[in-house]
Request: fold
Amino acid sequence: MNTTAVIMAGGKGERFWPKSRTSCPKQFLSLTSDGETMIQKTVKRLLPIVAMEDIFIVTNSAYTALVKEQLPEIPTENILAEPCARNTAPCIAFAAAVIGRKYDDAIMIVLPSDHLIANEILYADTLKKAVTVAEKGENLVTIGITPSYAETGYGYINFGEEKDGAYTVERFVEKPDLPTAEKYLASGKYLWNSGMFIWKLSSVMANIRKFMPDIYSGALKIGESFGTAEFNGVLEREFTAFRSESVDFGIMEKADNIYTLPGSFGWDDVGSWLAVERINDTDDNSNYIDGDVIAENTRHTTICGGKRLIATVGIENIIIVDTDDAMLICSKNSTQDVKKIIARLKEQGRNNLV
Amino acid sequence: MNTTAVIMAGGKGERFWPKSRTSCPKQFLSLTSDGETMIQKTVKRLLPIVAMEDIFIVTNSAYTALVKEQLPEIPTENILAEPCARNTAPCIAFAAAVIGRKYDDAIMIVLPSDHLIANEILYADTLKKAVTVAEKGENLVTIGITPSYAETGYGYINFGEEKDGAYTVERFVEKPDLPTAEKYLASGKYLWNSGMFIWKLSSVMANIRKFMPDIYSGALKIGESFGTAEFNGVLEREFTAFRSESVDFGIMEKADNIYTLPGSFGWDDVGSWLAVERINDTDDNSNYIDGDVIAENTRHTTICGGKRLIATVGIENIIIVDTDDAMLICSKNSTQDVKKIIARLKEQGRNNLV
Reply:
């Protein structure tokens, strides 16, 4: 059975403002010193498992030019342009319907476009195991990340017994408070929900039909028109009519045959500016510094410089990001609030800065 | 007797980098919302006491164009250009020698160019009283600032008994440590040394002759050549040969007839970026914000914006100063260390940023 991959690349990356903008969100940025963008890395690490012509990118129609520019090897017909954002369930249904025109059945690996993986060998091995599990019956497999601390910013997967080389899933739980996260960590029965899914096309379509029949029928219409002159019109009409729904809530929390495979391959969701010091080398003062910077008595600080000199004196635990038209100076405790700056800019009608 | 004023405007203002540069130091900047530069304010507040044509500006030769531009009303011949920096004693001797060509004797008010005064009426009244004291005998009068807290960054004046409408000076003391400053404050017998002096030309010349005969003879030569074709050559030769000497050490700590008048007119030496929040209005979060700024959960922070948006999130007690080619982000505890950035830039040979 062919193995295909669907990379979901429609995110807005608001927490990486001011580098991430509506016109070029996080997945199209390089946040590491090697200069590769997040989505380029995502494709590259898939190549030991999936052929280039079987990698599909679902993104917002505003970003298809960026995808073509950054990933010229991906066949143009594999770049699926959503006319609007409807969360992960319609995204996956759209991709599944299109892949259904190419293969009667296939393995579908569904991945975010903006995460980092430190150990790509272990990553590929884990995905291969997941493919083996997914090939059996109607199994829906998700990769769970072995928690290294009591993170409150992720959803968790409570797993049960070992079965068929994976673990059954008892339940998915939302982002916990700290005492709950600590309990999860101590129990040894919880994994972080990474948003990576592996299943057969036939399995996911059966579950979409069962739990989201409206989305199923719209997706079928989109798939039927794929490659025809009607495609754009059908896509626009059907996709726009979809409700927003996550695949977690729409399928995973309801379906049977849910399995999880623990992954320990150095996963980072690069969820905020705090990630930059985790995914890059830091200096003797625990600073990550990129660009023209003079740091005097500065510690635990992340500086992503721009075209001008940035001089810091006596600061710590600060994130500084410079761009041509906007600069962020943010406490490390407040990285989740970067979104509030975007909200303020929108209120002010300053869309050129968003 | 005519009253003249000498404004010392040769400072480098390094603690106000990156706004203050070698090419345009602090005294030529506006640090208040009214847009007036420090030296413009200094001249303006003197006008109730001194006629424009009796105000002399001593500055580095690199800044004469800036002085002419900012103070077009000052007669060109009153702008005295030092060929190099030699601290306050040679500066005052130079000015005294030149004024000696205009007046046989006169009152000389000597002032820094880069301080702020909140109450200009009380300031003028204090200077007038000082002039009265200076007119008697060979009195050398200095304005002492009534301390409002135990500052360790200023020198202090220990005053004695009241005499002739002023106080005798027991001694000048260098910047104290905190316990000493607290003792000074509690004693009620100490004032801050503001660097403002009032004396007769004849008095100061007599004391320069007595305590710094080398500088006296050089200054006389400069004065004699003033207005002749030889002036620039004499000035270059004599002034460059002067040793660096402060008037405090060179005269005030040695002379007799030293008097001080306590001033309580809202003096601020604008000694570091910390001053900006003192001399301007702050908002409800105790921030001083100038420019295009979005401040989210930001307190006790000073932001001097430039041409781009500055967004702050969750920070406090930080000073942010933006310019076209360099940006400073400095803890309020570290404003004295801004000079270290300049030292680093010089090491790197980046004189365009100094």
About this structure: The CA atoms of residues 143 and 261 of chain B lie 5 Å apart. The domain at 3-268 of chain B is CATH 3.90.550.10 (Spore Coat Polysaccharide Biosynthesis Protein SpsA; Chain A). The first helix of chain B runs from residue 38 to 44.
